[in-house]
Fold this protein.
Amino acid sequence: MQLEFTPEQEQFRQDVRTWFETELSGPFADIRGLPHSSGATDRRIEWERHLGNSGWNILAWPTALGGREAGLIEQVVFAEEYARSQAPGRISHIGLELVAPTIMAFGTEAQKQSFLPDIAHVRTLWAQLFSEPNAGSDLSNVQTRARLEQRPGGDVWVLDGQKIWSSYAQYAEWAIVLCRTEPGSVGAQGLSFLILPLRQKGVDIRPIRQMTGGSSFNEVFLDGAETAAHNVLGNPGEGWRVAMGTLTYERGVSTLGQQTGFRNEITALLQAAQANGQINDPAIARRFAQAWAELRAMRYTALRMLGDTGLSRAGLTYKIYYTSWHQRLGELAMEVLGIAGDAPEPGSKDQALQHLYLDSRSDSIWAGTSQIQRNIIAERGLGMPREPRRAKA
Ligand SMILES: Cc1cc2nc3c(=O)[nH]c(=O)nc-3n(C[C@H](O)[C@H](O)[C@H](O)COP(=O)(O)OP(=O)(O)OC[C@H]3O[C@@H](n4cnc5c(N)ncnc54)[C@H](O)[C@@H]3O)c2cc1C
């Protein structure tokens, strides 16, 4: 049993750290430490392309696709160093972490050749068009329709419907879309998983303004939007199976990087509490100590999960644990800031802490709400009776 990193792994960590330090104190110093909901989109995309051109985006990809087939530990080290260096949050993660693994698992050779290199180098950005106004937790209720039409230049899928909460769709060139291709079908039957170009007449993308003032997600209206007949992942009618594959990639190694981000946040908050004297309040100091201890415990839980196969108790409960931890940290931030947190200076440290509070409210919604997570724990973890499911068509 190995309890420490090997000298090679430590060397890898050092190399990654040095690379980030050089780039983020040099050409990309202006975007270091930008909060997730900040603008500066063009610069962040430039940064992500630079990562792609330097080979970092495809560390874990198979060598046949140009990757390095890096092991789990190297991926964890990279994710931790990314967050530690205060590199900005990623816009290309949907393409890299959700779309690329789905194409690798379900795509044809032609689809891999056509899409993966551009994703790796961030020449294209992607959006995930799954949720609809009446299909969120109940995703299989998707009502967006697609029909296959014959055209002289080649058959096309024609899509009509409305999607919502589509992260970064306003910047994306392509999207993965879950839609109904068998008229009259119900639930998970009759769905297909299409790849859709977004820059076209039949697609209307409307950013949703959030409490922070930013717009990280959108409503997307599809009105006769078209995509080539071959742009389907898996067989038509098998979209549910493919979509479930995509959702399993939503969490993973990036969890460890996320925790390093949490450490950055708690450190920044502690500095604020030291600066304004709030740390001298024993009740506040105790909450810091508690949050810090819980963060350490989370790290070990996440490391243990990486080695798990199948459903483990830690895997089932982890999302609820970290989201509630993060929301409590946000609440602590607002108490530490006091009145300074109500209307902070734009771009200030106080504003970053206020955004920590506001952004953390969404943690218990995306990638499965806390209520749905509890249902999963009850049904799969504790073996309690299942919720009634929609009748099959
Ligand atoms: C930051 C963020 C980014 C997102 N990005 C994307 C994206 O890029 N692409 C995309 O497709 N979607 C995205 N989403 C949408 C996300 O997947 C949905 O918001 C989520 O699935 C919940 O669906 P809903 O909002 O429709 O809420 P609903 O499903 O309508 O739920 C409303 C409330 O009812 C509860 N509830 C629902 N069903 C049950 C049940 N069976 N038992 C107990 N309680 C229940 C829920 O927990 C919730 O509290 C994003 C969401 C957020 C917050």
User: Anything to note?
Assistant: Residues 282-306 form the longest helix (25 residues). The CA atoms of residues 172 and 301 lie 34 Å apart. The radius of gyration is 22 Å. The beta strands are 126-129, 145-149, 156-164, 174-180, 191-197, 203-208, 217-228.
